[in-house]
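Data card: per-record layout.
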Amino acid sequence: MDWDKLRVFHAVAEAGSFTHAGEALNLSQSAVSRQISALEVFSKLAMTEAMLSESKERPKGPLKVTTTVSFGSAWLTPRIREFVDLYPEIQVSLVVDDSELDLSMREADVAIRMSPPRQPDLVQRHLMTVRYHIYASSEYLKRFGMPQKAEDLDRHRFIIYGQDGRPVRNINWLAEIGARAGIERQPIFMVNNVYAIFRAVDSGLGIAALPDFMAQETANLVRILPEITGPEVEAYFVYPEELRSSKRIAVFRDFLLRKVTEGKNS
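The structure for this 266-residue chain is written out next.
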């Protein structure tokens, strides 16, 4: 047995992530990943132990979920209580991160991603179509008025995503649509997180393009110029092929699909 690899494995287990383990061991994330991948038998044993822990009648055991900050904070978290009430023997942990955790290395059991997975060993199930519209708070509209056409946006305050590595292609489409020649719309605020944009809009700071699932979580936001629709994003429920028979994952998947359907019918 390679005790150096075991030391790395123990550090990852203690730290909870490759990144934090690397910091503790003074190793790069890729070096930690290589060491752990050499101990694949441990991940197989961990998976087998978790599968055996599930009762024949009731799913039980840990379930680590990862998704984007915006989806996890605004849509998923408010619905977790109902799932926990239904399945109290499943211990749910949620990691919100706009970068993708490596499911094949068991950084999480399942993921909700805003694009199809690229790895061939992952099972995917389409969850929902995320649609973007333009929103402002009631307070903002009382102060600055309701735009009646796209050209009116030239006179309004914009909040946009302000950094490269954006989660959605052409996420700042609002800054360009209907803009008249020679007029460059200057944002009043830029932030590199969609959930932060949502909070800024909700505070009355300005208008922004937001996914409908976020805006629907508060009564304070008003959809403006409803005929204008932004880019659509497909969300997928993703998990490793080796966990296909897990009851915990199956009931969580079915729960999410039911909540999406309820949202469409409400």
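Known properties of this structure: Strands lie at 61-67, 90-96, 110-113, 122-130, 132-137, 158-161, 187-191, 208-211, 221-224, 233-240. The chain has three domains: 1-38, 53-127+234-265, 132-231.

See the next section for split statistics.
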